[in-house]
Amino acid sequence: MPMTEQATGAHHPQPRPRSGGQSAPEHVTGAQSLIRSLEEVGADTVFGIPGGAILPAYDPLMDSGKVRHVLVRHEQGAGHAATGYAQATGRVGVCMATSGPGATNLVTPIADAHMDSVPLVAITGQVASKAIGTDAFQEADIVGITMPITKHNFLVTKAEDIPQVIAQAFHIASTGRPGPVLVDIAKDALQAKTTFSWPPTMDLPGYRPVTKPHAKQIREAAKLITSAKRPVLYVGGGVIKAKATAELKVLAELTGAPVTTTLMALGAFPDSHPLHVGMPGMHGAVSAVTALQKADLIVALGARFDDRVTGKLDSFAPFAKIVHADIDPAEIGKNREADVPIVGDAREVIADLIQAVQKEHSEGNRGDYTAWWKDLSRWRDTYPLGYDQPEDGSLSPQQVIERIGRLAPEGTIFAAGVGQHQMWAAHFIQYEKPATWLNSGGAGTMGYAVPAAMGAKAGAPGQAVWAIDGDGCFQMTNQELTTCALNNIPIKVAVINNGALGMVRQWQTLFYNQRYSNTVLHSGPDDVNPQARGTRVPDFVKLSEAMGCYAIRCEDPADLDKVIEEANSINDRPVVVDFIVHEDAMVWPMVAAGTSNDEIMAARDVRPDFGDSEDD
Q1: Choice among 22, 26, 66, 137 that is catalytic
Q2: Are 549 and 576 in contact (CB under 8 A)?
Q3: Among 360, 420, 538, 553, whose CB has the most other CB atoms within 10 angstroms?
Q4: Contact yes or no for 321/224 (Cβ under 8 A)
Q5: Tens digit of each residue's pLDDT (9 = 90 or more) over 60-92
Q6: What is the per-residue pLDDT for 535?
Q7: Which of 115, 454, 503, 590 is catalytic?
Q8: Parallel, antiparallel, or unpaired for β 276-278 and 259-261?
Q9: Strand partners, 596
Q10: What is the β-pairing status of strands 575-580 and 550-554?
């Protein structure tokens, strides 16, 4: 089975025995061996649902004093919870499901973790080895199905192979560019008798992630930084995964270059820092998008030149040379050719860049960015992020999210669904520290927020966790609130309820002549159910209460702070707040899909004036 190494993250040591030496062989079943292996690699939480093929594993799981199992209500919830756990803690998230539909329900969260480079191990039961390929009851070729969306996957048909496969799975998931690994175990392998000893032999020929960057490339990058007039540090999620945020701050302050953090990198560099010019991309800050467009040097650190950042690729950053540092060599040059490619772990790359830039400075080579900062400051001051209050006195969704951010306890983790509320949460909450912003960036998975928040709270019980969700996303996975209520996982959920699939509706407003085809959520065609007119279907307060949550509705701006403070004060159960907000609010700035970043609109019908003649 081919195994490729794919991009940005920290190098973690392979699993080690807790005792410090080889353990004595134990006579166990394959299922007991699986649970013992999970204990040895340090897994403390597993999200899952039992079923026929995986059932043998659930019996010894009941006796484990080290591994907590959280019984979710849908396997998709298990996968997103494992992802939220991993993003909040930096450890490998673990989910478990049975064969067939149980395993296929994990496909979306596995794809999500793959796009966002999240360390995840998904364990699935499979039909007995002799029945594989016969279309047996609840059989699905989950190894074949997930091969394009995993970093690696395993099919285990022999009980004696389980410890080695689990050790390798955790090692692969957490080293190099992190990612999801699937372990599919045949039912007879779980039932068979075997021996267990730890640690197993690691046998991964060809898997050698390069973490140390090449010194010559580092020197070249440092020379470009100190000779550039308009540099930008373009920071991606890999910097957070590599735990390189402290080094990034040193590099930024050493160079004085502006920093832009992608959607996946919010919190990698403090939003409040004077060198921060915002988030780039389709809905990025004007200052960040324009900085990249006008730059003469872009230093990409753990970022992948995603289409949401670049817009129309052939018009992206036309004046810029590119330094591209990534742990995945496949990312370098994939979308934009790099003048200086650097393969390595972001933490080691940035640490070496600091030394190389210091050496340049000691030799009298120091960049002068005075004119550049004059432009950047003008763009930042002229086109700040903002919003208008609705004229009818209703709640502004941006204000709701802004106040949640302001009133949240220090260290709160925010998880967002996908759509308008996701972009507003990125814009109007300040992120000062890494691992406090969780979202589905690459896949854009609706339904991510509630289970991801659940996983984050399970992994970081001492931190407050707010899920910022839309009413469309919320209706996909809200059943996991029952899981939270029954497992003492007291998350808080803000439902930004505009009665519509908001981002799709925004596009229909702007590009489809306000023809709102199938984006209204709060009512159906009038002639279908006249009795339902004027009612809330569903009523999120009643629904949340039925799932064991404390629920509040907020419609009046005058009640906003009081309601948020009430939600913050309740910590013995999940809290859901149904915020009824104005339906016509839009996300700005915006670069229309397929267009150049030069065509960014600061607001509707507001095209920024960059004074191009004086800039270029």
Answers
A1: 137
A2: yes
A3: 420
A4: yes
A5: 999 999 999 999 999 999 999 999 999 999 999
A6: 72
A7: 503
A8: parallel
A9: 311
A10: parallel
pTM: 0.94
Give the residue among 601, 611, 501, 485 at the shortest CA–CA distance from 547: 485
Average pLDDT over residues 14-19: 44
Distance CA 105, CA 367 (A): 52
Look up 229 and say whether it is catalytic. no
What mean pLDDT comes out for the span 292-304?
98
Of 5, 32, 40, 75, the catalytic one is 75
Q: How far is CA 603 from CA 107, 114, 425, 440, in A?
A: 37, 33, 18, 25
Structural contact between residues 103 and 184, judged by C-beta atoms closer than 8 angstroms: yes
Could you report the per-residue pLDDT of 159-203, keeping only the tens digit for each?
999 999 999 999 999 999 999 999 999 999 999 999 999 999 999
138 as an active site residue: the answer is yes
Q: Is 614 a catalytic residue?
A: no
In the residue annotation, 115 being an active-site residue is answered as: no
- How much of the chain exceeds pLDDT 70, in percent? 94
Enter the tokens of residue 86: 């991993």
- Catalytic residue, from 151, 187, 241, 294: name it: 187
| Per-residue pLDDT at 528 | 54
User: 604: which 2 tokens?
Assistant: 């509707």
Segment holding 78, helix H or strand E = helix 75-89
137 carries an active-site annotation: yes
- Among 138, 191, 463, 475, the active-site one is 138
pLDDT at 536 over 90: no
Cα 185 to Cα 138: distance, rounded to the nearest angstrom: 14
Per-residue pLDDT, 335: 97
